[in-house]
From TrEMBL:
This is Advillin. InterPro entries: ADF-H/Gelsolin-like_dom_sf, Gelsolin-like_dom, Villin/Gelsolin, Villin_headpiece, Villin_headpiece_dom_sf. PROSITE patterns: HP. Its main location: cytoplasm. It comes from the Eukaryota. Residues 698-769 form the HP domain. Keywords: Actin capping, Actin-binding, Calcium, Cytoplasm, Cytoskeleton, Repeat. The keyword Hydrolase does not apply. It is found in: Cytoplasm, Cytoskeleton. It comes from Astyanax mexicanus. It holds the Pfam family Gelsolin. Belongs to the villin/gelsolin family. One of its GO terms (biological process) is barbed-end actin filament capping. One of its GO terms (molecular function) is actin filament binding.
Length: 769
């Protein structure tokens, strides 16, 4: 295996092999993204995660490949998995039904090519101009291009087509194709030009709904594939599974102890991690759209190696299409996609503070900078009073009452530009009228600031980290009551607060029932009556938690008196009397607190077809945020909705409903009160941009639109290089040296030095002689 996989190293990136005569042959990097329909391939993706490497192996099955080639690809996948210590996640990919993660490796698109090894087809070498093909481009996110018959019979009104004749590529955009599809078609054309032709091809664009604006290009197109028919058929929509279908998850235990495969249903949504036994293998069925095979670390080697074949048997047993996507994951090395199907997923050896570098590192650093001469930050808070906005006394900033709703305008400055976040905090005991008024008044404030603020709806008790960070460790949430004058019941004689947090960016005090049963050995509590405060340290609380609790106690004491500190087990009688007497409470000290392990994920959301569809964007970057889209960034403890400037009005209005639908139908049985942040293009806060590598703040002002990219191609290059008016009546000697060079890209002498067959082929392609 060392010889077979000699190309494998520790460098992040992808490697691709093709099955040729049952052997693995490395595919040149310049041909990445090109797949022959008659072949099978194995792809290895290596990523660096922290200080270690993670691997994904995909084996791709062409629609015209043989059973022997498919079997060989599966065997090599198992061998590569063994070679890498059984750490990789394995994926089975079938042509036209590839997973989002597979398509994510080829941002410019995948090209399906006719033929394969058996027919002597080789991967295109760079600068090859001896090409004649018509490509049908489909998809916005999962872009694929398939070679089709070079005839108008292949065209339709809904897709984008590329006529590739070597030194020239003509893009024809169907009238019903959208701008994003046209953009993707152009990027694919430029990729072919740059990667396969060494930049030596010209690109021309025809808009199918304005063909008369490109007469020369149309003349060239028709001269090659014939006269355009008066009518073309409508396009077909891409077949995608909706979110409701993807939410139907079922876990099965699979065994073949007596030689016959037996499938037993274990559980349905919501799934919990404890259902998985390390001694066994399981199949997780996601509504028939995708299958996951989980291999327990203590399952025997034969069972582990047979995992993929068991999945294929399961597909037959259930009557699912043979194209169903399959992913196998190893116990302890599960993919993010697999883990998010469970209600909770924890890493047993990972403690708080060691793993969540995204939130802690990025948000924490931003807040720290703001306090040390960085962005200028100010807050302004209103309370909903009589359904109108009433200013809150700055002296009470950080106090939130469960009977109120608040609007918080957070202003910060980056690169001398003011930016805004608008929080709508809704108390648990606020009236329906107040809840509605808070949403209405937020819109009013948003409009006063030119629609620039990022809007965040915060449900009481679900405050996101960046909200807590604003109050620098002095956030206090009262269970009920109101902060308005004369509108609150008398303050209770005794109040108990549970204080959680380890630094000024994640600390808050929440009021809980003043009784002993509310205590927990893992936390710090503050007990307060009219003249006394007790700070109670649970035996499982950390030094950081205790230090932050002291800070909060100064706020709750309002400077009039300090708290008496006590450790669990050393409480005076007065402490228990204030709580109504001793009572059992949670007192098991945690040995090691596990943290939730969820990676950020980006989705495109759409209900344009009448079905709610969520399409994941893998290995996402800022470039995946498209102006006419609504995108959803899920970081688990909060969800961002990014609204592109060109998103239609319906999408804008329904975006929050769309997000709530996403949470409601999530396979992991998500909390529907998860904070939702509405982010507008060009006004992204650091809490959003921090999830993207190398965020470019000038992209929206300096970035190029489809129209700009099209304009860059130029008017002249669009089509004098193929034909000139009545040029078919000319001969080689009638052309000036300058015209000849311009049309053919070479001098007359260079042309004359070519073999006769080559000259004839060039003449034939250009329809000139």
């Amino acid at each position: 295996m060392e010889q077979t996989f000699r190309a494998v190293n520790q460098t992040p990136g992808i490697l691709i092999w093709r099955i040729e005569k049952m052997e693995l042959v490395l595919v040149p990097e310049k041909s990445y993204g090109n797949f022959y329909e008659g072949d099978c391939y194995v792809l290895l993706c290596t990523k660096k995660v922290g200080g270690s490497l993670s691997y994904d192996i995909h084996y791709w099955i062409g629609s015209e490949s043989s059973q022997d080639e498919q079997g060989a690809a599966a065997v090599y996948t198992i061998q590569l998995d063994d070679f890498l210590g059984s750490a990789p996640v394995q994926h089975r990919e079938v042509q036209h039904h590839e997973s989002s993660s597979f398509c994510g490796y080829f941002k410019q698109g995948i090209i399906y090519k006719k033929g394969g090894v058996a027919s002597g087809m080789r991967h295109v070498e760079t600068n090859s101009s001896d090409v004649q093909r018509l490509l049908q481009v489909k998809g916005k996110r999962k872009v694929t291009a398939k070679e089709v018959e070079m005839s108008w019979n292949s065209f339709n009104l809904g897709d984008v087509f590329l006529l590739d004749i070597g030194k020239t590529i003509i893009q024809w955009n169907g009238p019903d194709s959208n701008r994003q599809e046209r953009m993707k078609g152009m990027l694919l054309a430029k990729d072919i030009r740059d990667r396969e032709r060494g930049g030596r091809a010209e690109i021309g664009v025809i808009e199918g709904d304005a063909e008369k604006n490109s007469p020369l290009l149309m003349e060239a197109l028709t001269s090659i594939i014939g006269e355009r028919p008066a009518k073309l058929p409508s396009g077909t929509s891409d077949d995608q599974a909706d979110q409701q279908q993807m939410a139907q998850v079922t876990l099965f235990h699979v065994s073949d102890a007596d030689g016959e495969m037996k499938v037993m249903e274990v559980a349905t949504r919501p799934l919990v991690q404890d259902l998985l036994n390390h001694d066994d293998c399981y199949i997780l069925d996601q509504g028939g759209v995708k299958l996951f095979v989980w291999k327990g670390k203590r399952a025997n080697k034969a069972e582990r190696q047979a995992a993929m074949s068991r999945a294929l048997e399961f597909i037959k047993l259930k009557g699912y299409p043979h194209t169903t996507n399959v992913e196998t994951v190893n116990d302890g090395a599960e993919s993010a996609l697999f883990k998010q199907l469970f209600q909770s997923w924890t890493v047993q050896n990972q403690t708080k503070g060691l793993g969540h570098t995204h939130t802690v590192g990025r948000v924490g650093k931003w807040v720290t900078r703001s306090r040390t001469g960085g962005p200028d930050i100010t807050n302004f808070i209103w309370r909903i009073e009589n359904l109108e906005l009433a200013e809150v006394d700055p002296k009470t900033y950080g106090y939130f009452y469960g009977g109120d709703c608040y609007i918080i305008l957070y202003t910060y400055e980056v690169n001398r530009k003011k930016s805004y976040i608008l929080y709508i905090w809704q108390g648990r005991h606020a009236t329906q009228d107040e809840l509605a008024a808070s949403a209405f008044q937020a819109v009013t404030v948003d409009q006063q600031y030119g629609g620039e603020p990022v809007q965040v709806r915060v449900t009481m008790g679900k405050e996101p980290r960046h909200f807590m960070a604003m109050f620098k460790g002095k956030l206090v949430i009262f269970e009920g009551g109101t902060s308005r004058k004369g509108g609150s019941d008398p303050e209770p004689l005794v109040r108990l607060f549970q204080i959680s947090g380890t630094d000024s960016t994640n600390t808050k005090a929440i009021e809980v029932p003043a009784q002993a049963a509310s205590l927990n050995s893992n936390d710090v509590f503050l007990l307060k009556n009219q003249g006394t405060m007790y700070l109670w340290y649970g035996k499982g609380s950390s030094g950081d938690e205790r230090a932050m609790a002291k800070e909060v106690s100064t706020v709750l004491g309002r400077g009039s008196f300090s708290a008496e500190i006590m450790a669990e087990g050393q409480e005076p009688a007065e402490f228990w009397n204030l709580l109504g007497g001793k009572a059992p409470y949670a007192n098991d000290k945690r040995l090691q607190q596990v943290v939730q392990d969820h990676q950020p994920r980006l989705f495109e959301c759409s209900n344009k077809t009448g079905r709610f569809i969520v399409t994941e964007v893998t290995d996402f970057t800022q470039d995946d945020l498209i102006e006419d889209d609504v995108m959803l960034l899920d970081t688990w403890d909060q969800v961002f909705l990014w609204i592109g400037n060109e998103a239609n009005e319906v999408e804008r209005k329904e975006s929050v409903v769309t997000c709530q639908e996403y949470l409601r139908t999530h396979p992991g049985a998500r909390d529907c009160d998860t904070p939702i942040l509405l982010v507008k293009q060009g006004f992204e806060p650091p809490t959003f941009t921090g999830w993207f590598t190398a965020w470019d703040p000038t992209k929206w002002s300096d970035g190029k639109t489809y129209e700009q990219l099209k304009e860059e191609l130029g008017e002249v290059t669009s089509l004098e290089i193929i034909c000139l008016p009545n040029i078919s009546s000319l001969s080689q000697k009638h052309l000036s040296d300058e015209d000849f060079q311009f049309i053919f890209g070479m001098s007359k002498n260079e042309f004359s030095s070519l073999p006769q067959w080559k000259q004839l082929n060039i003449k034939k392609k250009n329809k000139m002689f």
